[in-house]
Specification:
Elements lengths: L1 H29 L1 H31 L2 H14 L3 H37 L5 H11 L2 H13 L4 H27 L4 H8 L2 H29 L21 H17 L2 H16 L4 H11 L3 H27 L3 H28 L1 H9 L5 H7 L2 H17 L4 H25 L1 H25 L7 H33 L5 H25 L5 H5 L5 H10 L5
Helix pairs in contact: 1-7, 1-13, 2-4, 2-5, 2-6, 2-7, 2-8, 2-10, 2-11, 2-12, 3-4, 3-6, 3-10, 4-5, 4-6, 5-8, 5-9, 6-9, 7-8, 7-9, 10-18, 11-12, 11-18, 11-19, 12-19, 13-14, 13-17, 14-16, 14-17, 14-20, 15-21, 16-19, 17-18, 17-19, 18-19, 20-21
């Protein structure tokens, strides 16, 4: 009975954490749109140059210790050794606080040097603004790891939502103030990059409040255990279980290195695209503006890959369980279905965004600049989605290093293609390189699954049927969008953002309808297959059955 209760608590915690992560990432992704609208393309370019660097540096500052804290605190909790759990927190919090502070000082003082490495002096102020977040966020992450180790996901969930909400609020408030004050693009981007520090302080405050409440409740519980002599009962010390710095880093550093692999492709753009644009004759300001235009499509692509990332956590424990049970048929079925459907969903999102690139660009950013690059960039959703899901499947089977190595290879390909294509085709060349890199990482993961004998490929299901479905989706979405545009022109309000928004929404709705009807008509997924997907499969099958979508 106790294990059932604990399992239910873990599932509930996973759901809370996933929902908060999705909401937080959605806020963080969509906040880029008002940044471009208020600050312009050059400020947007500077922000998108510095923020990936900030993300990498925060990951380095944390040293993978939140995951290590979670593990060792969970072990201490299972042994009912609360003192050891708190000792792990104190030790790790001290390391992360010092690490973040040192890295923040280095970034602040070394900002001009980093700007030279990137090849654009306009990012110096923004780099210094981002340094303040480095001094706060790692400590907050350490506290999150402690509560996760206790299987209490609520503090992490609440702090994530508060952190992102305050970050966006600070960013927008500073954007409004700085644009009204007539600040230049570098100053506006620097103000926007104070948002992570504001959000980090708010998130840290939430975690400290939870810690204060938890500590008080622990002290009250300890008073009930006071023996007759009036002194608290001392916990039994187990030196072999005592966690030290070496143990923490031995577990945390590999986690950190794995986390660094994911944003590497974006980091390649930071260090190559602005420099290559400048080298092709653009001024530093013009290069930043072009880089900002190049990044217009990323928030939309990131929404698709964010969904894949959030759902991928379901597959790791499901496959690990199937492998432990040595149920090879179940493993093959889940892997084949997961890849088929995420490949299809990624392609559908890519095709939809590609054919609607111009009205979407105008609706969100006010003009159609860079729509060609956005069309190409849309197809990174397909490769990125399959790369994320296939990496989760490999991790569930125990192949932890392979996905990270594949991402490193993809980043190397991205760098080589940027050097080849950007001088010739500008930001469109960078977008083409991104598509190739993400598809390369996905292909390496899928090939490994195939070689291990866990993947069954059928040409009709993988290519022929999806091609027919996506062709119909693209044609209908484009036709509906075009008809809406002509209707807006006839009504006298064509060419503006309102008309472009109507074109985009109607095109998306038409594409979704074709996708749903076409998937049923082409028998791309049966009810039995859907029920075999872990987590959400059975519930989704019940809903679709009620709608009579299955034959």
């Amino acid at each position: 009975m106790k294990s059932d209760t604990q399992g239910s608590k873990l599932l509930q915690g996973a759901f809370i954490l996933s929902a908060a992560a999705i909401f937080s990432k959605l806020i963080g992704t969509l906040q880029k749109i008002p940044l471009q609208n208020l600050g312009g393309d050059a400020a947007f370019g500077i922000y998108n140059t510095v923020y990936p660097l900030y993300t990498i540096l925060v990951t380095v500052a944390m040293l993978g210790l939140p995951a290590a804290i979670s593990r060792f605190v969970a072990e201490a909790s299972a042994a009912q050794d609360d003192q050891e759990g708190r000792r792990v927190l104190r030790l790790s919090a001290g390391i992360t606080a010092v690490s973040g502070l040192i890295l923040g000082i280095l970034v602040y003082t070394g900002a001009p040097v980093i700007a030279v490495w990137v090849g654009n002096s306009h990012i110096t102020s923004a780099l210094r603004s981002s340094a303040w977040g480095l001094a706060v966020v790692p400590l907050m992450a350490a506290l999150r790891g402690y509560f996760q180790g206790l299987h209490n996901m609520m503090p992490t969930a609440v702090s994530q939502v508060v952190e992102q909400s305050v970050r966006v609020a600070v960013m927008i408030a500073l954007l409004l103030y700085l644009t009204a004050a007539g600040a230049d693009e570098a100053g506006i981007a620097a103000g926007a990059l104070l948002g992570p520090a504001g959000g980090g302080l708010a998130g840290l405050a939430v975690m400290l409040l939870y810690w204060r409440t938890y500590r008080r409740s622990g002290l009250k519980a300890a008073m009930l255990l006071v023996p007759a002599r009036g002194k608290p009962a001392a916990a039994e010390v187990h030196p072999e279980r005592e966690t030290n710095v070496r143990k923490l880093l031995a577990y945390g550093l590999p986690v950190m290195l794995g986390a660094l692999a994911m944003p590497l492709i974006g980091l390649v753009d930071v260090f190559t695209v602005p420099r290559l644009l400048t080298g092709s004759g653009s001024s530093e300001t013009a290069a930043m503006a072009q880089f900002g235009i190049y990044n217009r499509g990323l928030p939309l692509v990131q929404i698709v890959t964010m969904l894949a990332t959030s759902l991928s956590v379901v597959f790791i424990p499901a496959l690990a369980e199937a492998k432990f049970q040595r149920n090879e048929e179940l493993i093959r079925t889940r892997i084949t279905l997961s890849l088929r459907w995420f490949w299809l969903l990624g392609l559908a999102a890519s095709v939809g965004l590609a054919v609607l690139a111009e009205p979407v660009n105008t609706a969100l950013y006010g003009d159609a600049a860079g729509s060609g690059a956005m069309t190409w960039l849309a197809f990174t959703a397909a490769g990125g989605t399959v790369s994320i899901i296939s990496a989760a499947l490999l991790q569930g089977l125990g192949a932890v290093r392979a996905p990270a190595l594949h991402l490193l290879a993809a980043a190397a390909l991205k760098a080589a293609l940027n050097l080849l294509l950007v001088p010739q085709q500008g930001i469109t060349g960078a977008a083409i390189a991104g598509v190739a890199a993400h598809l390369f990482a996905a292909a390496l993961n899928v090939l490994l699954l195939y070689r291990q004998g866990y993947l069954r490929l059928r040409f009709a299901d993988a290519l022929l049927k999806p091609a027919a479905l996506l062709a119909g989706l693209g044609l209908v979405a484009a036709a509906v969008s075009l008809a809406a545009g002509r209707a807006a022109d006839a009504a006298g309000f064509g060419g503006g953002r309102t008309a472009a928004l109507a074109q985009s929404l109607l095109g998306v709705l038409a594409g979704c309808a074709v996708f749903a009807l076409g998937a049923v008509a082409l028998r791309l997924l049966s009810e039995n297959e859907l029920r075999q997907l872990p987590g959400f499969g059975p519930r989704l099958a019940d809903k679709l059955k009620k709608l009579r979508l299955f034959p």
